[in-house]
Amino acid sequence: WVQEEAPDVLCLQETKCGVSAVPPEIRALPGLPHQFWASAEGRPGYSGVGLLAKTEPLNVTYGIGDPEHDADGRVVTAEFPSLFVVCAYVPNAGRGLVRLEPRMRFDAAFLEFLRRLDAQKPVLLCGDLNVAHAEIDLCHPRANRANPGFTPQEREGFTRLLGAGFVDSFRHLYPEARGAFTFWTYLGGARARNVGWRLDYAVVSQRLLGSLCDSKIRSTVTGSDHCPITALLAV
């Protein structure tokens, strides 16, 4: 699928492996020779992200400059001539919301990080943001109001992101699209019934909207409990 899609930049989340454990078939993906991996320090099989690029970035950074979160390997940022591409795997609030407070601290620190980038040049944020922002973004909103990914606190965090000059590219282009999900639990045949959540986003700086061509959910692509999304920009 990656070879057919032929992305300029490929962002992967929840890779659960360190640099040395990246499979050789991923290392050898044609057209994506520049690869940057982050993994959780001292926690094999936890978190992790990867950013793969067709052309070499001007600069690459890891983390968001916050020691509480940077050891988890959740963010890689690549600077290109016209924009920053941020690959992110936002923390889950956890069963019983046991990690909701750390999640809220991450959201606040991450927003400040994105603002600092945006002050330099536009930003494209791609990733599993672990939140369904509005009721339209999940199948059963009423039953999930107290569950991770749809708490008022997490939704408000995303609202603050939008209020800071960023745009949810898919919802901007398809404001009324229903059943547009990117995650389905493996339980109960949820994917076949499209009982899902939209947790994966391409978020852009507002001034990139003129360059936004499309934002797609590739829901037919299997191999994970998430599906890929594709952002198309003319930059």
UniProtKB/TrEMBL annotation:
Which top EC class is given? hydrolase
Q: Which organism is it from?
A: Falcunculus frontatus
For whether the record's keyword set contains Magnesium, the answer is yes
Superkingdom is: Eukaryota
A family per Pfam: Exo_endo_phos
GO BP? base-excision repair
Site note Interaction with DNA substrate applies to H226
Which gene carries the instructions for this protein?
Apex1
Name used for this protein in its record: DNA repair nuclease/redox regulator APEX1
* Cofactor names: Mn(2+); Mg(2+)
